[in-house]
Each structure stands twice: as C-alpha cells, then as structure tokens.
Automatic annotation (TrEMBL):
Organism per entry: Gordonia rhizosphera NBRC 16068
Protein's UniProt name: Putative oxidoreductase
Pfam family, one: adh_short
CDD domains for the chain: SDR_c
Family membership noted in the UniProt record: Belongs to the short-chain dehydrogenases/reductases (SDR) family.
One GO molecular-function entry: oxidoreductase activity, acting on the CH-OH group of donors, NAD or NADP as acceptor
Transmembrane segments: none
Amino acid sequence: MDKTAIVTGGAGGMGLATARILGADHHVVLTDVRRDRLDAAVAELASAGVSAQAELCDITDRPAVDTLFATAVATGQVRAVVHSAGVSPQMGSAETIVKINAVGTVNVTEAALTMAHDGSALVNVASIAGHMLPGFLVPKRTYRLASTDVDKFTRKLVATASRGPEKMRPGSAYSLSKNFVIWYSQDRAAAFGARGARILSVSPGTFDTEMGRLEEKSGSARLLEYAALKRFGRPEEIAELLAFCASDKPGYLTGTDILCDGGTKAGLGLKDMISMARHS
C-alpha cells in the first residue's frame, strides 16, 4: 500500500477499532506506550487482513513524536492521522492529564503539520467534557501559548486546573485539556488549509471502552440519565465516525468539532452540569 495512517492510542478501544477500518486501504502505524498491548493489537489486525506495525511512542516527548512520523513516512505517504491517545481523570494527576491530553495533542498536531499535504487529514479526539466548560472559564490566553511557549502553556494550564479542591483537580484538568483540543484543532485549521490538508476534532460521549468503564467511578455513567440514547456507545460506532473524518470523503470538513454523545449534551442544562461537577 502507498498510503499510511497513524493511529495513536491504537492498542485498544476506539483507536484499535478505527485502525481496523482505516486498514482497509491504508498501512496502519499503531502507537501506544505498552509494547505487549501494541503487539497484541497488531496480531489482531493481521488476522483480519490489515497491514499494521507497532511503534512505541510517548506523545509528551516531541522528539519521540517526530521519530514516529518519520518512521511512518518511510512506509508510505502519511495521508491520515487519528490521535486518540489520552488519559481520563481516574488515570493520573492534573499535571499528568495536561501533559498527555493537551501537550501530547500539540506535539502530534505540529508533527502532522510538518508533513501535511494536499488531501491529508488529522482527527484529534476530544470529549464531551470539553463542551461542558462554561465559556467564561475557558483560558484562551493560556491556550494561545501552546503555539509560542509550550512549557509556559503547560505550567499555566496545570495551575488553572489546580485552583479548586484537590479531589476535583484531575476532573478539571480533563475538561480543560479536552476543551483545549477542540480550540486548538480549530486554531490550526488555517495552517493545515494552506497545505491543502484538514484538521478537526471529534468529541465522544460515554463509550464502552476500558477507559470509559473506568470513569464510571467518577460518575460518568450519570450522563446516561440525560442522554437521548440510554446506553454506552460502542467503540465501533465512534470508530466509523473517526475513520470517515480521516478519510478523503469529507474533503471540505475542517476546523470544527463533531460531538458524538448519544444526545447527552442536548439533555443537559447548566444546573445539571454543575451538579455533575460537584458529584464527580
């Protein structure tokens, strides 16, 4: 195959499900931080007839991300990137969440931009949590630092997430980091467009993945009370959307976010969101 797709967080969940679809007409470079899970994912894809390879990569390390993209280019023209790697509130401190979700997205996005070309696409995975941050709490001045001073951006975003009670800080960092993913994907659209390329984000709601089930502890399942569809989403459902957005079919789709949440946000009012935050 002369086309390559990179899928971060590809060892399981929605990343692996997306790789399975993209693999129909792309060589897939899967990346994650655990070799055992990556190897198992590649073996699973191979059994389904998908050409894939595993590459370890810490997305918080820009040189490592650059190496990942260089490795992928050696296999064929990188036409699609789906950036699904990330962590949730139960998986780390506010600082860890900011570094992986926000700084990791900066690193992947900027690496993808250097190799962007006519018809290529980057899809960043955000979250419904990014839509639940009130506008007056969105620190856009801090967000803008991501393009000029990543270290200062990181410090300020961690400080913003750490203003409340300690137990709420990981959740705050998660909402902020995912709101940033949405903002940054829109902010960088012109730069990608200048190369004939696209960038957008997709915001999943509550999905039946390992991470999604882990977050039941923080009350994520309560979101289903407000959803139009009273169930967890399936990984293959969000994967279809991610793969479509990364394909060449929606060639005019860029600089926006697509919310895929089973109608959850449609049923949430401001008081409901405040209540969710207090009980998370």
